[in-house]
Write a structure and sequence with these properties.
Layout lengths: L6 E5 L3 H12 L3 E5 L14 E2 L5 H7 L3 H7 L7 E5 L4 E4 L12 E2 L1 H10 L6 E2 L4 E7 L2 E6 L4 E4 L1 E4 L17 E12 L2 H4 L1 H7 L3 E6 L2 E7 L5 E8 L4 H4 L7 H11 L5 H4 L7 E10 L12 E3 L2 H4 L8 H18 L3 H30 L4 H12 L2
Parallel strand pairs: 1-2, 1-11, 2-7, 4-13, 11-17
Antiparallel strand pairs: 3-6, 4-5, 8-9, 9-10, 12-15, 12-16, 13-14, 14-15
Helix pairs in contact: 1-4, 1-11, 2-11, 11-12
Bound molecules: flavin-adenine dinucleotide (FAD).
């Protein structure tokens, strides 16, 4: 099999898609990444990510990007304070280490920049919002929202949760996890949420109580990212009639829903410098399968989105990229390479989805804090 003489299209320039692009380019492949963001300056929101030795870091190592990673990582960002809804600290990495070692953290923006800079010029075609595709010759004709079209011999979908390309491979529908998060980002946090900023001490806070959660992290650009989590109906975002663009309404919701929580946490919604995105969290059936195709597969969240309560999503996306690139570059037959890759990916995702869903459910029960404490105590044994 010679994939080097094929036109390969990757849909989505997140960590999964860009890592795959880099690894395949190293193998001499002809790659385009079609990304819906308008340009490389689009701001990547969300908390920072801890990369794991056997997955995210292994992919960066293979991509020769470990030095760039360590030049940009945040040494203190992994330091955790585990707290309750009253503001009491139960475990504190600033005084002793509890979390598993060697899980260095990086902001999403710098990670994307490192990957982008590793690619050949014009690899990423910005403003390419994938809409549909149909079979053409031995490959696929892709159509984008801005009206452009292009042909590719091989297509890899890496367009994340709510993937538009996944339905061409699988009709397995995403299942609501029971938990919806309200994600927030506060710029210039030392000014806008000074108490929380001090409490974070450059690291992160996991707080649990009243069947709810708040996860906070300090980012390298001086902002703080956070998400609240609680058990609500799947359509709560729509049915609550809250306008999540209206901060007064969002604050009212927090004051009522998180009324049991200490004033410390209410600082998050007292600033008008917070941007908010509500997200119901989904996952796929742990036993999901599909029929392998000749010249099309999917990776990362497009294949196996899951809630963030095991911290594995980005690591899985990057490990998928590593394994898929090896399968494509070394396999004798593309369909067989995809079949072996997909089997391994789905087995892994099945185990991690089960673990993630256990955490998601347990952490949003009344004794969620104790569940987390027990988990850290098990780690440190
Ligand atoms: C609140 C929150 C916290 C998280 N925390 C962690 C954590 O601590 N650790 C961890 O490992 N994981 C975490 N995750 C999960 C992690 O963010 C994802 O698993 C990871 O980003 C998946 O990478 P990906 O490349 O598959 O998809 P994405 O990162 O979603 O990238 C998809 C890319 O495709 C583009 N795109 C989307 N649709 C289209 C389209 N139609 N056409 C073209 N381009 C498109 C998007 O703009 C994006 O650039 C968290 C997720 C959330 C929501």
């Amino acid at each position: 099999m010679n994939v080097q003489n094929k036109k390969i299209a990757i849909i989505g320039g997140g960590p999964g898609g860009l890592t795959l692009a880099r690894l395949l380019q190293q193998g001499g492949c002809n790659i385009k990444v079609y990304e819906r963001d308008l340009d490389k300056n689009a701001r990547v929101q969300g908390g920072n990510l801890d990369l794991h030795e056997e997955s995210g870091l292994a992919a960066l190592k293979k991509a020769d990007l470990l030095d760039a990673f360590y030049a940009n990582y945040l040494p203190d960002a992994g330091k955790l304070r585990l707290m309750d809804s009253d503001g009491k600290i139960y475990l504190d990495d600033h005084t002793e280490t509890h979390i598993a070692e060697h899980r260095p953290e990086i902001d999403r923006g710098p990670l994307r920049k490192i990957l982008l800079e590793s690619l050949k010029d014009n690899t990423v075609v910005w403003d390419s919002h994938f809409v549909s595709m149909h079979k053409e010759k031995d490959g696929w004709e892709l159509l984008f929202k801005n009206g452009t079209q292009c042909y590719a011999d091989i297509v890899i979908g890496a367009d994340g949760a709510n993937s538009k390309i996944r339905p061409y491979l699988s009709d397995g529908k995403a299942i609501y996890s029971g938990v919806t998060i309200i994600e927030g980002n506060i710029d210039d946090a030392s000014q806008n949420v000074p108490y929380i900023f001090k409490l974070l001490k450059g690291g992160k806070i996991f707080a649990f109580g009243n069947g709810q959660s708040i996860i906070l992290s300090t980012k390298g650009d001086g902002s703080v990212a956070f998400y609240t989590g609680e058990v609500v109906d799947e359509n709560w975002v729509r049915d609550s009639n809250i306008d999540f663009k209206n901060l007064t309404e969002v604050k009212q919701w927090f004051n009522i829903h998180f009324s049991e929580w200490n004033a410390v946490y209410h600082e998050l919604f007292e600033t008008d410098k917070v941007s908010i995105v509500p997200r119901p969290l989904y996952h796929y059936e742990a036993s999901q399968q599909w029929q392998t195709q000749d010249n099309f597969t999917i990776i990362g969240d497009a294949a196996h989105v899951m809630p963030p309560y095991a911290g594995e999503g980005v690591n899985m996306a990057m490990l998928d990229a590593l394994e898929l690139s090896e399968a494509m570059l070394n396999g004798k037959n593309l369909k067989l390479a995809f079949e072996n890759f997909e089997r391994k990916m789905l087995e892994r995702a099945s185990a991690i989805t089960a673990l993630t869903m256990m955490n998601t459910v347990q952490l949003h029960k009344q004794n969620g804090l104790q569940f987390m404490l027990d988990m850290f105590n098990d780690f440190s044994k």
